[in-house]
Specification:
- This protein has about 100 residues and is an alpha/beta fold.
- The chain has one domain.
- The chain contains 3 helices and 6 strands, in the order H-E-E-E-E-E-H-H-E.
- Strands 1, 2, 3, 4, 5 and 6 form a 6-stranded mixed β-sheet that branches.
- Strand 2 and strand 3 form a beta hairpin.
Length: about 100
């Protein structure tokens, strides 16, 4: 069986060579956008597990983003992410979270 990936990286080596030693919460006001929200799952499993979330601060600094949740349902994924953002007082669409989702099945 082959893995099925959505929204793959174009330049894998370049992306992962960036220093993301700084970590911020999703609600951090310095966070300008989410650049990648990586989710993993297995066949038959009803949810995705969070692998990592990366973002960028307003000054352009790349960061790791701490999310308050580590599992998301497959059914209603976007709705679940939007609700998590609302609960944290941020706007998922404005941060680009829905466009940054990458899944590996």
């Amino acid at each position: 069986m082959y893995a099925n990936e959505t929204n793959p990286l174009v330049d894998h080596d370049r992306y992962y060579s960036v220093d993301r030693s700084l970590e911020v919460d999703l609600a951090d006001r310095r966070l300008a956008r989410v650049t990648r929200l990586r989710l993993l799952t297995d066949p038959g499993c009803p949810f995705f597990d969070l692998s990592y979330c990366h973002g960028e601060l307003r000054d352009g600094t790349p960061v790791r983003v701490r999310l308050p949740r580590h599992q998301f349902p497959k059914r209603g994924l976007s709705r679940s992410i939007v609700q998590m953002a609302i609960d944290e007082g941020v706007h998922a669409k404005r941060l680009g979270m829905l466009d940054a989702i990458s899944t590996l099945r």
